[in-house]
Design brief:
The chain has helices at residues 17-28, 41-53, 68-82, 105-133, 154-174, 202-207, 217-228; strands at residues 8-11, 32-37, 58-62, 87-90, 136-141, 179-186, 239-242. It is globular. A seven-stranded parallel β-sheet has the order 3-2-1-4-5-6-7, with helices on both faces. By secondary structure, it is α/β, with parallel strands linked by helices. It is built from seven helices and seven strands; from the N terminus they run βαβαβαβαβαβααβ. The protein starts with 7 loop residues before the first strand and ends in a 19-residue tail after the last strand.
């Protein structure tokens, strides 16, 4: 496939999980890809090697995106490597599951610095390169937590809701420059950290999703590639939930067997 041939892309948080799958898929469709990582150097290098094996072009870049100067440097490195930048996928993020009353200032700052500050200033720097191209595509990874409530995720959910608002506002602001901004909201997607949760199994994950199975990173990647491509040229300011029906389900406790026919 070559829907993205000749394009250059930066994917943040691409050392593992969803970001890694997105980076590989963009490369499969022809893009030259910079894979950002903060701590997953091995995963990023393995993905670069895989991309190079099938004839693609990729580099790995590292840094902590909670720092604005690092956001700018990472974008600059990607653009310099490929002679510009056409696609930005903001994916790097962190989750802390804890009750609202126990969420400390330090945890709040950590979550917002990466999940929102990183998105904001990576995008700001990337847009300077897209303006030179006269077009571009930004895909922000949000979450079902930005659409509905779930216990013990107040800070994380707040960032994901902010990402949705940021996506829509920026889509309007940049539409005249032909820079499209969309968001993808994954549901329960099995990434390595899920299996560190005591008692978590693939079967349990599947039982929580209306479609009957847990999602995989490869379920997210093709949709991101589509939104980055010319096939989505008239799509901007949208949020696409990829969640096996999770956000469509009305979460009322209702025992159907007790209600009769």
């Amino acid at each position: 496939m070559s829907a993205l041939a000749g394009r250059s892309a930066l994917v943040t948080g691409a050392g593992i999980g969803i970001g890694q799958a997105i980076a590989i898929e963009l490369a499969r469709q022809g893009a030259a890809v910079a894979l950002h990582y903060a701590s997953s150097a091995q995963g990023a290098q393995e993905a670069v090697a895989e991309i190079e094996r099938f004839g693609g072009k990729a580099i790995a870049v590292s840094g902590k995106l909670g720092e604005v100067s690092t956001c700018r440097r990472i974008v600059d490195e990607a653009a310099e490597a490929f002679g510009g930048l056409d696609i930005l996928v903001n994916n790097a993020g962190i989750t802390h599951a804890m009750s609202f009353l126990k969420t400390s200032e330090e945890i709040y700052n950590e979550v917002f610095d990466l999940n929102m500050r990183g998105y904001y200033f990576c995008t700001q720097q990337a847009v300077t390169y897209m303006l030179k191209r006269g077009r571009g595509s930004i895909v922000n990874i949000t979450s079902v937590h930005g659409a509905a409530g779930f216990p013990r995720h107040s800070a994380y959910a707040a960032t994901k809701g902010a990402i949705i608002a940021f996506t829509r506002e920026l889509a309007v602001e940049l539409a005249g420059q032909h820079i499209r901004v969309n968001a993808v909201g994954p549901g329960l997607i099995e990434v390595p950290r899920y299996f560190d949760i005591p008692g978590y199994t693939n079967e349990f994950g599947g039982s929580l999703v209306p479609y009957g199975r847990a999602g995989q990173p490869q379920d997210i990647a093709p949709a991101v590639a589509f939104l980055a491509s010319d096939a989505a040229d008239f799509i901007t300011g949208q949020v696409l939930y990829i969640d096996g029906g999770t956000t469509a389900k009305m979460a009322l406790d209702w025992d159907e067997t007790a209600q009769g026919e």
